[in-house]
Automatic annotation (TrEMBL):
Name the UniProt record assigns to this protein: Polygalacturonase At1g48100
Catalytic residues as annotated in Swiss-Prot or TrEMBL: H297
GO biological process: carbohydrate metabolic process; cell wall organization
The species this protein was found in: Ziziphus jujuba (Chinese jujube)
Coiled-coil segments on the chain, per record: none
Length: 465
């Protein structure tokens, strides 16, 4: 065989291989415009297609074999932690989103992808999975954030029905430079003052007006602001997540939901600098189970009723969880002047470890300490605290029910609550103000300040939710 024949054979084999691979992927798509996108991306510059694009090597997660895989690297993402890979992610998403069968956007292990603030938009033709096995991160801090991009959000998933975000990878929000902005309470000793200056900081991952979402197994750390924000969503399942951010990071709520219903948050570890989970207005049917929080600010309903707004939150259950080294345990916080109601809330089987306010209702929530007293408030009722045990930090009373002057809390029920100091002397007097409720068992410490029965002034007609 002469040299030129050999060369031609090699070329031919190479071509066949390439053709089969491309063909295999193209068969999936029927529409011409998809053919165009894929063929444009699959051919040069690289002489051979990325192997991971054909046969993903990972085996984690219940990804079905029938799924189409769209590896961001085969769309041109570099993954060296420096190069801007936004366009490749967008193309991979758009292609997956247009696929007729369930599709997977694959972010492969062993690479670090730098992505600008991006909105991944649906609806998609079929269920879509974002499989993150590598690292994904934003530009490093406010100075590297393009001026024209929103500083309030980083990765946004918008109008999507049926999506999974999962994997063994890391989403690193690189928050440090945001936390150090002069407007933030300073991390080295918050003296209560806030300097002026731009303060917007991006939430790491926001799902907006979407439904049937699963987020599973990822590590999310160092978000500039909230780690997850679900806003206007339905049927959300968060499972086996790890959120890890320093206690000194301001405003870094772990999972925040608002106007969102049918939510399950299970089996996750959260340590951060603000609420571990926060539940905002318009949320109902939320089940939170087996969460370990701390250090954190605990699990909160609220804040609600800011700027005289109306807020309705109901049917919330928090159970089988641990809250440690936190300045709150289970909290309901509302501003004065709001309206609406928080009702049918169950906090049960919760272990507290060195928590400053293990059980707290605060209807005088105010950031500036200059809030005027007002006559309306969000009505808090039917709250059950059952089997809440452990230790508190004696700087505050372990049970604190500060209800509104004008709208008392009603039907607060305590059962099997046992809270003792982690060290130091017992705080004898729980705080109650305008709080109606009962103790079903002996409570430690006894909450003798609860008012019995129900207030005469309350009329059901006043409560509209
Ligand atoms: C409060 O902290 C800020 C930022 O650390 C600092 O600039 C300011 O001087 C401090 N104010 C007082 C009264 O200590
Ligand atoms: C979500 O999933 C449910 C069943 O799992 C399905 O009935 C529904 O159509 C899906 N989409 C929306 C928008 O709820
Ligand atoms: C609770 O969650 C942890 C992860 O945080 C997990 O390891 C453990 O198996 C879960 N427990 C149950 C009973 O599911
Ligand atoms: C608001 O009401 C509370 C409870 O009655 C009272 O302790 C507080 O002094 C009042 N604050 C103002 C600013 O009037
Ligand atoms: C009081 O709350 C409990 C649950 O915490 C509920 O079972 C009960 O029905 C409520 N009572 C009234 C009168 O609403």
């Amino acid at each position: 065989m002469t040299f030129s024949w050999f060369f031609i054979m090699v070329f031919f084999l190479h071509f066949c291989f390439f053709f089969l691979v491309t063909q295999g992927r193209l068969n999936i798509h029927a529409e011409p415009n998809h053919l165009h996108i894929i063929s444009r991306i699959s051919f040069p510059p690289s002489p051979a297609p990325d192997e991971a694009a054909i046969s993903p090597s990972y085996s984690a997660g219940p990804v079905h074999y029938t799924a189409n895989f769209f590896n961001v690297r085969s769309f041109g993402a570099v993954g060296d932690g420096t190069r801007d890979d936004t366009q490749a992610f967008k193309m991979a998403w758009d292609t997956a989103c247009e696929a007729e069968e369930p599709a997977v956007v694959l972010v492969p292990e062993g690479y670090s992808f730098m992505i600008q603030s991006t909105i991944f938009t649906g609806p998609c033709k079929s269920a879509t999975t974002f499989q993150i096995d590598g690292t994904v991160m934003p530009p490093d801090g406010p100075k590297s954030w393009p001026k024209s991009y929103s500083k309030r959000q980083w990765l946004v998933f918008y109008r999507i029905d049926g999506m999974k975000m999962q994997g063994s990878g890391v989403i690193d929000g690189r928050g440090e430079k945001w936390w150090n902005l002069p407007c933030k309470p300073h991390k080295h000793g918050n003296n209560g003052t806030q300097n002026s200056g731009p303060c917007d900081s991006p939430a790491a991952i926001r799902f907006f007006l979407s439904s049937n979402l699963t987020v599973q197994g990822l590590i999310v750390k160092n978000s500039p602001q909230f780690h997850f924000r679900f806003d206007g969503c339905q049927n959300v399942h968060v499972e086996s997540l790890t959120i890890k951010t320093p206690a000194y990071s301001p405003n870094t709520d772990g999972i925040h939901i608002e106007n969102t219903n049918h939510v399950k948050i299970y089996n996750s570890l959260i340590s951060n600098g603000d609420d571990c989970i926060s539940i905002g207005a318009g949320s109902y049917n939320v089940d939170i189970r087996n969460i370990t929080c701390g250090p954190s600010h605990g699990i909160s309903i609220g804040s609600l009723g800011n700027h005289n707004s109306r807020a309705c939150v109901s049917d919330i259950t928090v159970s089988d969880s641990v809250i440690k080294t936190s300045n709150n345990g289970v909290r309901i916080k509302t501003w004065q002047g709001g309206s609406g109601a928080v009702s049918r809330v169950i906090f049960q089987n919760i272990q507290m470890d060195t928590v400053r306010n293990p059980i707290i209702v605060d209807q005088y929530y105010c950031l500036s300490k200059k809030c005027e007293n007002q006559t309306s408030a969000v009505y808090v009722s039917n709250i059950l605290y059952s089997n809440i045990k452990g230790t508190y930090d004696v700087r505050s009373a372990p049970v604190h029910f500060a209800c509104s002057d004008s709208v008392p809390c009603t039907n607060l029920t305590l059962s099997h609550v046992e809270l003792i100091p982690s060290k130091g002397k017992v705080v004898r007097d729980p705080v109650c103000w305008n709080a109606y409720g009962t103790m079903l068992t002996q409570i430690i410490p006894p909450v003798l300040c609860l008012l019995e029965g129900s207030p005469l002034t309350m009329r059901q007609s006043e409560v509209l939710c």
